[in-house]
Amino acid sequence: MGARDIGRLVAGLPGVRAAVRDAAQDIRDDARMLATGHGTLPECISLEYPNEYDVDVVMAHEAALSIEYGHDDAVYDTGWVAGLHIMRDAAAGL
After folding, report:
1. Are 68 and 85 in contact (CB under 8 A)?
2. For residue 77, what pLDDT is reported?
3. What is the pLDDT of residue 7?
4. Is the Cβ–Cβ distance between 67 and 52 less than 8 Å?
């Protein structure tokens, strides 16, 4: 049995699958809380299930990268606007 087979076996165990889903839900909930006060941003944070083992926490917003990492303010020309680091902080449990 190869490493991939063992990984697939472990990932498919009911307790492991439940733990992965619970962790993803916690991260999503923390991210939504950190996004509170930023319009509809909390509603843009959701869970996606790309396969039977994984769960992704996604910020599906057109400006997600700018929100997360920062951007240059071209509208008011006020310079650099720092990112909110919502997803980073949620994943770190901050």
Report:
1. yes
2. 87
3. 82
4. no
Q: Are 59 and 44 in contact (CB under 8 A)?
A: yes
pLDDT at residue 66 is higher than 80: yes
- Domain layout of the chain by residue ranges: 3-92
Under DSSP, the state recorded for 13 is S
DSSP 35-70: HTTSTTGGGGEEEE-SSSS--EEEE--TTHHHHHHE
From residue 42, give the alpha-carbon distance in Å to each of 13, 45, 59, 87: 31, 6, 9, 11
Residue 32 CA to residue 38 CA, distance in Å, equals 10
The Cα 35–Cα 65 span in angstroms is: 14
Nearest by Cα to 51 from 73, 20, 86: 20
Confidence label for 60 from pLDDT (cuts 50, 70 and 90): very high
